[in-house]
């Protein structure tokens, strides 16, 4: 009778299921988590309130939509042009600088009556820099947490983003109604300044070690743009990294395409006023539930085996919109689809293991900016389909896209020589 070789300490740590309480017990991560919640709330407040301000001043729905999208769409370009700075500069300074830049932009929009074009340019410039700040923060999470603690740390950040975005939308609506859009922008600026002060005073200084300087390809010479383009190209040429990026980008882009049609769907079916808010809440609430259940109850190996079924869960309920469901059933379908977002937890260890050591900050910035950009492109693409298929049909096609992504991910995951994370 043969016995299995004992697991190494590193393997045991990776396989052990961690709890959210243990992750939050790390004071440095806890500071990043809390400031992220406040920062995302402030960002959501700034972007939505600026959109309201533009619509109030111009009466143009197109310009209002551009004001909303200007906070997201430029992020991919920012990651490709400046992403290497997340690895080359001290992370604490970058995070503090990020909060200060966002706070200054909100304060300027609140205090100065800028022309619409100038306001759009200002919001777009902040979006260009966002991947650098977020990449530096994500790199610290990867440094301070390991094994399953890292996966749950990413899960908590996802929960923070979803919850804070919902709260930011609600807070923005309440403050705009009570005080006006410029006062709401001023509150967002104050929240960012509080976050900057907290990180500067409470976070220990993390020096950039000599071997960490450089881009994802290991080069240290050249300017920031050259290094960023070179590092981004190196990341995207790596087959494993490229697959893992697309596996995390595509499902959410398809679901975002369906999400962007919810308001039109409720209007086309004559649902009572305010029904769109209930349906819009289905996806983020489902995402919160899915992350909590999958992150809390399942072992790391089980999460990784459930990646493909959970991607399929994102898409399958959306196909039900081809039958033009009523309000209650539509809300249930969206809630179930949102639960599938937990698939990302099963890819986190594999993604981290595939990254070059010197390019983690840029890679995390690229991951986040790609998410934001494709979630902005998705609604535009599927909105164009509605003329031929109707809103329900277009939402169902978005579900088919997610199912096809699940089949693609299943194909290359089965083809790997091992089932665990790639080295």
If you had to describe this structure to a student in words, what would you say it looks like?
There is one protein chain. This protein is mostly helical. It folds into two domains: 19-202 and 223-237, Up-down Bundle (Growth Hormone, Chain: A), CATH 1.20.1250; 238-417, Up-down Bundle (Growth Hormone, Chain: A). The chain contains 19 helices and no strands. Helix 3 (27-58) packs parallel to helix 9 and helix 7 packs antiparallel against helix 10. The longest helix is centred in the C-terminal third of the chain and has 55 residues, at 360-414. The two termini are 31 Å apart. Residues 1-14, 210-214 and 418-423 have low confidence and may be disordered.
Strand and helix layout:
Layout: H1 9-15, H2 20-24, H3 27-58, H4 61-69, H5 75-82, H6 85-88, H7 91-111, H8 116-144, H9 147-179, H10 181-202, H11 224-237, H12 239-259, H13 262-268, H14 275-297, H15 300-305, H16 307-319, H17 327-339, H18 348-354, H19 360-414
Helix pairs in contact: 3-4, 3-7, 3-8, 3-9, 3-10, 5-8, 5-11, 5-19, 7-8, 7-10, 8-19, 9-10, 9-14, 12-16, 12-19, 13-14, 14-17, 16-17, 16-19
Q: Can I get a quick summary?
A:
This protein is an all-alpha fold and 423 residues long.
Distance between the termini: 31 Å
The gross shape turns out to be globular
Strand content: under 5%
* CATH class group of the largest domain: Mainly Alpha
CATH superfamily membership of the largest domain: MFS general substrate transporter like domains
Structurally, the number of domains stands at: 2
Q: Taking Cα atoms only, what radius of gyration do you get, to the nearest Å?
A: 21 Å
Structure summary, number of beta strands: 0
Question: pLDDT below 50 for ≥5 consecutive residues: which ranges?
Answer: 1-14, 210-214, 418-423
Which CATH architecture of the largest domain would you pick? Up-down Bundle
Which whole number gives the mean pLDDT? 82
